[in-house]
């Protein structure tokens, strides 16, 4: 969800105003998923590297997350949305951890849209977490190293149970993966738009889906 800071800067506003406007884009995209039948949406809301930002911005983002969970929990329950998270959630403020757990519990029976928030997330640390957990099982004598297939590895990632993404949308024209879902994006189609995230609306989401539908996917075959 890139470009919140630049969107605010262009308007002479503090960066947090950009993140606040970015939260509205989340609502539009979730609605577009519900309307079009997209079943999985994963948002890169806060990376492990984002902790390096000034405390004012980090605290503001955590407050936005808390408010979002407070305001959207019942709506998610009603709309058939199931909330998931990926990332090192224990690094978040305890109030955010609690709100996340509550919202996940409240939506656990829903199946229409699997909505995943990546929080304190980095693709590399996710892979390291999986490797450490596999190594522990091997050391305890509960896993034969030869039995570590792609499937077994994937079941140790934070995204266990969530299919690999078909489409990655990157806003603000950046042509980077930025440590997002490094294992899972192997065959994902990438759509880059110059729009800043707060300006990304329903029509932009639908245009990204159109672009995706025009791709020929061969997964390494012919
Ligand atoms: C990247 O833009 C965006 C973020 C680091 C935060 C995204 C968070 C939200 C949209 C809202 C909070 C989350 C929830 C789930 C309510 P940037 O700040 O790097 O923008 P820039 O590249 O223009 O500086």
CATH topological fold name: Undecaprenyl pyrophosphate synthetase
Number of domains: 1
**CATH level 1 class label:** Alpha Beta
- Each distinct ligand: farnesyl diphosphate
- Global mean pLDDT: 97
- Report the order of strands and helices: HHEHEHEHHEEH
Number of strands: 5
- Low-confidence region ranges: none
Tell me the name of the CATH homologous superfamily: Decaprenyl diphosphate synthase-like
Q: What distance separates the N and C termini?
A: 33 Å
Share of β-strand residues? 5-15%
Features:
single chain, 222 residues, alpha/beta, Undecaprenyl pyrophosphate synthetase, three-stranded parallel sheet, two-stranded parallel sheet, 7 helices, 14% strand, globular, binds farnesyl diphosphate
Summarize the helices and strands and which ones pair or pack.
Elements: H1 4-10, H2 15-36, E1 40-47, H3 55-79, E2 81-86, H4 94-106, E3 113-121, H5 123-139, H6 150-154, E4 167-170, E5 189-192, H7 202-213
Parallel strand pairs: 1-3, 2-3, 4-5
Helix pairs in contact: 1-2, 2-3, 3-4
The structure holds farnesyl diphosphate (FPP).
Farnesyl diphosphate binds next to helix 1, helix 2 and helix 3.
